Amino acid sequence: KAGVTQTPRYLIKTRGQQVTLSCSPISGHRSVSWYQQTPGQGLQFLFEYFSETQRNKGNFPGRFSGRQFSNSRSEMNVSTLELGDSALYLCASSLRISGGSETQYFGPGTRLLVL
Amino acid sequence: AQSVAQPEDQVNVAEGNPLTVKCTYSVSGNPYLFWYVQYPNRGLQFLLKYITGDNLVKGSYGFEAEFNKSQTSFHLKKPSALVSDSALYFCAVRDMRRSASKIIFGSGTRLSIRP
Question: pLDDT tens, A33-65?
Fold first, then answer.
């Protein structure tokens, strides 16, 4: 079974631009979560989607948004990019909504550099 | 509020020696606890999780972790380290009482195994 895939793997943008990242979960998984990983802040939860609905949200500004499609694929959008948005963005999928003992499986990430 | 702490930024061990990566947690109720490993330029890989029952949990690549409720710890261990174990390790916790609670990751511990 194929793992979680993320595209693109690397991205360079300039301040003020917007970016869209894509995540395809493991086949059959219906939950997709997004995380931001930076050296200073570590791994921070952005949001989770399940059955095309946002079920949980982290403490990020409204510039960060996402959506999930009927095939469970998810996109994350960041508008008006800032230098501090440079990070590795990780997507994780799970069979069910990621509560309790549910295990999340991570993709390789998209490394975003904002200049 | 839930939290997880990894008190050591880096752990250095000689190949063949036992290794321990420490993790302590804080949740309101009982915890679900996870360990993930991250290799360079890769996403997180699931190692093991504690749900309930036996305090000693066995996982992938020969790793195991011991749940200690009185010390609120979930240390990762391996009897004999390999150079290939060198990576970044994350402990994570989720509150068992809240079905849709977010998973909280520790800051990570870089494990370095010298030949």
Answer: 999 999 888 899 999 999 999 988 888 999 999
* Residues of A in Cβ contact (< 8 Å) with B88: none
From A89, which residue of chain B is nearest by alpha-carbon distance?
Answer: B43
Determine contact: A67 vs chain B, CB below 8 A.
no
The partner residues of A37 in beta bridges, in order of sequence, read A43, A88
The string of DSSP codes covering B18-86 is -EEE--EEE-SSPEEEEEEEE-TT--EEEEEEE-SS-SEEE-GGG-EEEEETTTTEEEEEESS--GGG-
- Chains A, B: CB contacts within 8 A come to 54
**Which amino acid makes up residue A12?**
I
CA distances from A2 to B31, B45, B74 (A): 30, 14, 30
